[in-house]
Design brief:
Length: 274
Amino acid sequence: MSYSLANITKDESNQFVLPLIPKNKRGFASRFSVSDLFSCMLHKLKTGCQWHKLFIDLEGFKPHFSWQSVYCFYKKWCQADVFKNLYNAHLAAKAKLLDKSNLNLDGTQTLVKKSAESARYQNRKKGRTSNVLIMTDAAGIPISIGPIIAGNHHDLYQVVPQFAAMSRQLNELGISVKGVMLNTDKGFDCKALRRAILRRGMIPNIKENVRNRKKTKRGKKRLFDQDAYKNRFVNERCFAWLDSFRTLLIRFDKHDSKWLNWHYIAAFLILLKV
């Protein structure tokens, strides 16, 4: 494959993916190569092809297994949290290279073309969508991914428990975010989120939503750094990187777990280029 964000060598597959594959408790060990299986999954992620069309335009590779085998291993590795652990391990390894001058939080909506979990009609997109919150560093590198939620909800739906889980994940990986400014747009303007950010030692830099206030606020104004807020648009660059993976551009996966694991693989590939 010649895709800029999907290029991964056989040695890199064996180095990063192979140690995370769970061993069979009984029966024979698989005779299929982990690197070959992972390359097929990357091809599916990048091209967005249907599973049964997996090998049609796969150049320079003659598989000795069927597409059903690739799907079976993908499902098995999703259940074993292989891709989540792959992303977390690589994120922890690249922690010193992350730009934590400020962080950015935003959600991305994805159109859903088939019946799926956490998919509801979104008027702005004129179709059923799924939403996922993503936190990035100052360079637009995804450092935390939230759960999948239905697209009919607004930005503040369960935002505090989602943010708490994302912050907890960073702490478990040894990535300190204390004293770091967090940028969000006015759709996330609420007291509960501001308090949640402050409780974790971060600085909320949220643009105030005028629709939340009928009268001018009296007393000291909330902190808002316009120059730091301009960096929030690196989120759009991150979303553009994710959309370059055709499987993430339009959702066809029925189950949230499989859909979320595609995000973990894509984020791992982005981290691999850091």
